[in-house]
C-alpha cells in the first residue's frame, strides 16, 4: 500500500507545477505542509509576519514568472496575508497562498481561528477555492497556479481544511497531473499593427512608455531592438526601469514631466494609465494625445483615455510585430528633431539641479547627497528594492537600473512595508544562481518599521541583503533630537508630537547587530561610502546602514502637485 497525506499532495502538486519557493509562518494546522514542501524539494523560508511572507512569495512570482507560495495558518494568519495578496493582485504579480483552515466537522461551530477564508480571499485574488477531497488537491493546485500566470497575472488562494493535512489516501486513487505550460502567447491583429505604425510614423513628438508589464513579460530583447531600430525616446515607469538600461541614450526619464506633457503619440507598453501615469490626462498629458495601448488584458484598454489603437496580446510579440512593420521601408525617427532637442535640454537642466543638491556638502546630509554616493558604489547588476515616500521617489531618479526586474518597490498599490519581504525573496532566488547578484534594500525609516523583524529572517538564513535606512526621523519628515527632548519636557508627547514623527536617531543598525548581522551608524559621506563598501564585500551576512539625514530634507521643487486628476 502506498499512501500519501494531504500535506504531501499539496507539496508534490506545487513542485509539479514548478513552484520552487514557499514563504510562511507555520502553526497548527500547516506545520506538516511546510515539512512536506521541503521533502519535495521546495525551499521553505520561515518569516515573522504573514504579510511579509506574502510580499516575498509575490516577488518570486514577478522575478521568476512562476508564483511563489505563501503558507499561512487559519484565521489571523490568513488575514495578515491579505495585504500581500492585495498588493500582488494590484501589481498583476502571480502568487499562490495556501491557508490552513478549520477541520471539516467543525465548520460553523465556532472552531479555533474559524473564518470564511475562501470568501474573504475572493476580493484579493483571481481564484479562491477549497479542494473538497484529498483526490482533488492536485487539480485545484494546478488550476490555481495556471490561473495565477495566465491572462493578467495575479493572486490565487487554496484553502486546506485542517483535518485534510494528515489524512491519507491511496496514491493510485489520485489522478496525476503534469505541469501547466507557460501561458500561450498571442499576437495583435495585423490590421491594428499597421494602424499603430502609421500613427507612430505621423507623430511629431512620440514617446514610448515601458511599464512593469514589459518587465514581467520578459520583453527586453524585443524592446531593445524596437527602441534602437526606431530611434524613439522612451520613459520607464518605476518598475519598468531596467527593461532597457537607465543610461540608454534614448531614455528620457530625467525629462519625465516634459515628455509626458508634450508627447502627441504615446506607445504604452505594459503600463496602466492610473495614478502612476497621472491617468493619461491633462494637466500632465497633452489633451489630444493619441495612445497606442499594448496590453494582454482586454478590459484594460481605454481606461481613462480612449485608446487610439488597441493592440491586444503579449508585449514582446507585439513589439516584434511593430518593428517588422515599421522597418519595411527603413523608417526611423530622426535624432535631430526639435523634440529630441527639447528633451535633451530638459535632461541636462534637471541633472544639473540634482547634482548641485548632491554636492551641497552640508551636514546632516540631504537625500540627494546620500543617493549620489550610493549610486557611485552600487554594482550595475544589483537588485534595488526601495520604499518610503521621499526615499523611494528621489531614489528612483538617482539610482539607476541596468537589468530588467531588478527594481522592486511599493508598486501600484503604494504599499509600504514590502521592502524586506521583497529583498528576502530576491536574495533567496539569487543564492541559487552561479553568479548571485547583490540585493540592496533602500528604505525610509518609516517603511523599514512595517516589517523590521524580518531582519531576523535575513540573519537566520544568512541572506546577505544590504539594508540602507535613510533615516529622517519620521514619515515625510521628522524632528531633530533636541526639539524632541524639548517637546517631551513640555508635556505628553501623544498630545504634542507631530503625527509624522518617529523616534529621532533611532538605532535601527542595532536591530541588525542584535541578530548577528553588521550594523553601521552613518552621518557623513565618508562613513556612508566606507560602510557600503564593507557591506558589499561581505557575502556572508546581512548589513544595515542607518543613515541619519537632515529631518527637514525634501524633494526638489516639483512642477506639479502629486496625484493630480482633472474632472473628466
Ligand atoms: P506600471 O506600474 O509599470 O505602470 P502596471 O502594473 O500599471 O505597470 O501595468 C502593467 C500592465 O501590463 C498590466 O495592465 C498587465 O495587464 C500588462 N501585462 C503584464 N504582462 C504582460 C504581457 N506579457 N504582455 C502584455 N501585457 C502585459
Ligand atoms: Mg522617514
UniProtKB/TrEMBL annotation:
Thiamine pyrophosphate enzyme N-terminal TPP-binding domain location: 5-118
Catalysed reactions, semicolon-separated: 2-hydroxyoctadecanoyl-CoA = heptadecanal + formyl-CoA; a 2-hydroxy-3-methyl fatty acyl-CoA = a 2-methyl-branched fatty aldehyde + formyl-CoA; an (R)-2-hydroxy-long-chain-fatty acyl-CoA = a long-chain fatty aldehyde + formyl-CoA
Keywords: Lyase, Magnesium, Metal-binding, Thiamine pyrophosphate
Domain Thiamine pyrophosphate enzyme TPP-binding: 391-547
EC class name: lyase
SUPFAM superfamilies named among the record's database cross-references: DHS-like NAD/FAD-binding domain, Thiamin diphosphate-binding fold (THDP-binding)
Cited Pfam families: TPP_enzyme_C (PF02775), TPP_enzyme_M (PF00205), TPP_enzyme_N (PF02776)
InterPro entries: DHS-like_NAD/FAD-binding_dom, HACL1-like, THDP-binding, Thiamin_PyroP_enz_cen_dom, Thiamin_PyroP_enz_TPP-bd_dom, TPP_enzyme_TPP-bd
EC number: 4.1.2.63
Assigned protein family: Belongs to the TPP enzyme family.
Record protein name field: 2-hydroxyacyl-CoA lyase
Organism: Characodon lateralis
Upper classification of the organism: Eukaryota, Metazoa, Chordata, Craniata, Vertebrata
Name of the coding gene: HACL1
